[in-house]
Amino acid sequence: MTRILRALEIGEDTIHVIVAVLLMALGLVLIIDTVRHIVIVVSGPYNLPVIVLTVLEEALLLFIVAELLHTVAIALRHRGALDPEPFLVVGLVAGIRRVLVVTGEAEQSFRWNPEGIELLILMLLILVMAITTYAWRRSMCLPSDRRPTESAAAVDSARE
């Protein structure tokens, strides 16, 4: 049984390392593509909204890959224990990225067309993920907040 568990741990670590290498390769390709894309946009006709939108979109995509790589590194460091908070951060960044793209591409006047409905859904999703992240952080802080003070520990030891 111990050999099977050890083999599973080695397999899990191997998969994490492969995912980390793939994410690093993806990050390098994205950096090169981001620089290329920004150079193309900047060298074209001056259009500030397009330049800003391109830089934001590409930078946030790089941030998502970096956050995923960080999460895999944590999983390797802590023997497969995944913390949901980095995934929530990735979801928040992806949602915000999409909101920026949709609003940047939208016309000046707002209508309840498919883009308006998409924005509403994205805003609700971002709100839910933000509340979930806040709740997760609060739940992780509670055990340390509920530690007995020295005086309470002294009272407890005096009772025994």
Give the SSE layout.
Blueprint: H1 2-43, H2 48-77, H3 84-105, H4 114-145, H5 150-159
Helix pairs in contact: 1-2, 2-3, 3-4
Describe the sheet with the most strands: none
Percent range for β-strand residues: under 5%
Number of strands: 0
Low-confidence stretches: 147-160
Alpha-beta classification: mainly alpha
Alpha carbon gyration radius: 23 Å
Share in helix: over 70%
**With helices defined by DSSP (H or I, 4 residues minimum), what is the helix count?**
5
**Overall morphology:** flat
Mean pLDDT: 80
Give the SSE string. HHHHH
End-to-end Cα distance, whole Å, is 43 Å
Structure characterization notes:
The protein is mostly helical and 160 residues long. Helix content is 85%, strand content 0%. The chain has five helices and no strands. Helix 2 runs antiparallel to helix 3 (84-105) and helix 3 packs antiparallel against helix 4.
